[in-house]
Amino acid sequence: IIVCNGEKASDVKMHIEENFTDDRIVLFFINLSGLSNALNYGICNSSSKYIARQDADDVSHKDRLSKQIAYLESNHNIGVLGCGVQLIDGHSKPLPDKFISVNLDLSIRRLLPVINSMCHPALIYRRQCIIEVGGYKFGGLSEDHELYLRILRMKKWKFHNLSETLFDYRRHDGQLTSQGSYKNFCDISSFMMGHILLTGNLFGILGILWVFPPVIFFKRLVRKLIRFSV
């Protein structure tokens, strides 16, 4: 399932139609702004047991899907499954800094009110899990983090990350979630504050501080120093 939306949607649709003839491709062209709308549209038009995420500028290893599905088939209580992630630059070269990730459900749950350790484009969901929680509802930044917090509050489904690295995640300056504006801070801190009020988990305050623009500036500086020193 390929959902084409956004400024270049018509160009992408034309390119796919002209260059690919695989009859497994189901192509949708929609005029809905925002990633969340496109994700929900794709999920609603799928009848699959699983929903696998993939962004255009990232790279899945050839055995990523088979290993993730095999794990889900053996662990029926896992609703959201990720994997080990290698950060790469715009030229597909490995970066020395690491994606903050933990493997076990309890550790992921403890971190989620502060840091999202589930790499969105590297995940496979059980479609039932996403449908039960109501799909993507947050239209700003970090729509994935907001979704995970709702799944966390359900307590029915578990999270897990495979320890094996099966995904290359591209880091570049144009990423929405790397932009440290105060508008973005307000967007993200709004659903973080909602989680605090609903659960009483005050660790969410650290999550709000984690996306505070001066803190993001400091994290960028540290990341650059790591890359420069290697």
What are the SSEs and their pairings?
Layout: E1 2-4, H1 9-19, E2 27-29, H2 35-44, E3 50-52, E4 59-60, H3 64-74, E5 78-88, H4 105-111, E6 124-126, H5 127-133, H6 143-154, E7 158-170, H7 182-199, H8 204-210, H9 213-229
Parallel strand pairs: 1-2, 5-7
Antiparallel strand pairs: 3-6, 4-7, 5-6
Helix pairs in contact: 6-7, 7-8
List keywords for this structure.
alpha/beta, 7 strands, 230 residues
Write a short abstract of this structure.
By secondary structure, the protein is an alpha/beta fold. It contains 9 helices and 7 strands; from the N terminus they run βαβαββαβαβααβααα.
Task: Characterize the structure shown.
By secondary structure, this protein is an alpha/beta fold. The protein is built from 9 helices and 7 strands; from the N terminus they run E-H-E-H-E-E-H-E-H-E-H-H-E-H-H-H. It has a 5-stranded mixed beta sheet. Strands 1-2 form a two-stranded parallel ribbon. Helix 6 packs parallel to helix 7 (182-199) and helix 7 (182-199) packs antiparallel against helix 8. The longest helix is centred in the last third of the chain and has 18 residues, at 182-199.
